[in-house]
């Protein structure tokens, strides 16, 4: 099964949307295998956004993601990266279609509620930034055969 990282960003936490966002992923059939609430410091934020360090919006990303608590999650499922990306919608919430997290709940391009790994390679790089291997659980849900059957 594929794993991906999701961050519920400070704007979503502050607006009380964490449960709604988590519920959407679970209803889709994705399994939560790791989760924690935390506040990022500058070092961890810069490490997470290191691919953007040469872009003009890098500092605003760091400032925003460190502005309040986040919820870091590892989701697991068939095609988890693509499923999460599709569920999130476009980076600019105003351009995201209804039915997506950002399209239904987002306000703008900067305050866009969630981050999700954009590829399997990114997920493999991002997950260890937030979780130690022993924090990621392996378990079977009663519904798994209905969701993951070949």
How do the strands and helices of this protein lay out in sequence?
Elements: E1 2-8, H1 10-14, H2 18-28, E2 31-38, H3 42-48, H4 58-65, E3 70-77, H5 80-88, H6 101-105, E4 114-116, H7 120-130, H8 144-148
Antiparallel strand pairs: 1-3, 1-4, 2-3
Q: How would you classify the helix and strand content by structural class?
A: alpha+beta
The level of helicity is: 40-55%
Spatial strand sequence of the major β-sheet: 2-3-1-4
Per DSSP, the total helix count is: 8
Per DSSP E runs of 2 or more residues, the count of β-strands stands at 4
Element order: H for helix, E for strand = EHHEHHEHHEHH
Give the low-pLDDT segments: none
For the largest beta-sheet, the strand count, sense and barrel status come to:
4 strands, antiparallel
What is the global morphology? globular
- How confident is the prediction overall: mean pLDDT? 93
- Approximately what portion of the residues adopt beta-strand conformation? 15-25%
> Termini, distance in Å?
12 Å
Query: Radius of gyration from the CA trace?
Result: 15 Å
